[in-house]
Model the fold of this input.
Amino acid sequence: MEVFDPAELWSRERIEETQLVRLKNTVGQARKCDFYRQRLDEAGIGPDSLRSLDDLRRIPFTTKEDLRTQYPTGMLSVPQTEIVRMHCSSGTTGSPVAICHTQNDINSWADLMARCMHMVGVRREDVFQNMSGYGLFTGGLGIHFGAERLGCLTIPAGAGNSRRQIKLAKDFRTTVAHILPSYALILGEHLRNMGEDPREFPLRVALVGAEPYTEEFRRRIEGLFDMKAYNSYGLSEMNGPGVAFECLEQSGMHLWEDAYIPEIIDPETCQPVPDGEVGELVMTCLCRQGMPILRYRTRDLTRFIPGECGCGRLHRRMDRILGRSDDMFIIKGVNVYPMQVEQVIMTFPEVGQSYLILLENDGIGDVMRVQVEVRDEFFVEDMRALQNLQKSIAQRLRDEILITPKVELVQSNSLPRTEGKAVRLQDLRAKK
Ligand code: ADP
Ligand code: ZN
Done:
């Protein structure tokens, strides 16, 4: 197999040996900042305490709150003059945190990203269009540098502006794009409204990530453009994209274990869950000097996929993100994730590109409303067909989440659009 980096084909022994060496170095590096030196001393972890990978579990977790209190530069492990770039998390779930990188950090991140793209068949002959926001968001420059590292003609198109995206892609014959799942459907719809068939669009591969989406959603994107869509996972705290990526098998994302140590824990007990069970992903970076982060609680819920991948790589795979622990909402005593709702509604061919879950209180109790965009060709049908659709969606949702929401069918393009990550949930209950 042709690979970008020989580390992709390492044996488990080689991966684990390297992890231990790099973990020791990373802990040594982290001790150069006051925050970690204090934390590690309190936990009794000295420079020589780590004898095996199991000792990782003695290291205390790092939380988003830690990063917030150390903002902006409290967690630097090098003098600030060594830092060449900073990024912030998108702030989807609160005030942002800043992550600072040295030139070496940036280079190894670009290598990881190039490795991911190469794995799904992207080569220097490809024209790559990055349709995600640039600026502080890591999906811009992070993927950009990976594409350049591969040698692709790289178009930094940025987010939104479908008309310009389409023109650039046609003029330069773009073959590969990085695109947020919510935006992929919007772009397809835009092409259709221009009277064009999205399947004629030159794209053959899309890297799709940055926000949760279901398998049903992926199939939709692939069918719409007649292309392959590969799931891409990352978070600013661990650089950004390039942390885990699907291979051609499309059966889970390989976590690059030469660069990270992933763990999946029970968020309540903080103990590891058995292989294959869902828990919270915890990540330690192994290749960062500017701002190493140990045992970071991502709040993302997923599971390790047991067994070996058909592609032959032995880096473990994780399942698509079920949701963030912060996304979960409780209604009438039931725990629900927005992805459960998406999974149901995206199986209906009548459903268009977007949906929104609204939680309200009508004075008597909590009410869940789901607004679902319906594709234009179905909206013109008679009332009865629409009522039936509404009923079947409500019933299927009830089967999945055990409560019956109010389903409202709305016209396509009527729900609010964002240029960044899609907003799938509005909880208006507290504001009453
Ligand atoms: P924020 O947490 O503010 O959105 P980031 O821009 O760093 O900040 O986004 C990282 C988060 O995005 C991850 O923790 C995860 O919740 C989500 N995410 C990234 N890639 C994916 C993916 N492929 N599937 C699901 N969620 C993803
Ligand atoms: Zn694989």
About this structure: Residues 89-93, 137-138, 209-212, 231-236, 298, 300, 320-321, 324 surround adenosine-5'-diphosphate (ligand 1) (CB under 6 Å). The longest strand covers residues 351-361. The chain has two domains: 1-326, 329-431.
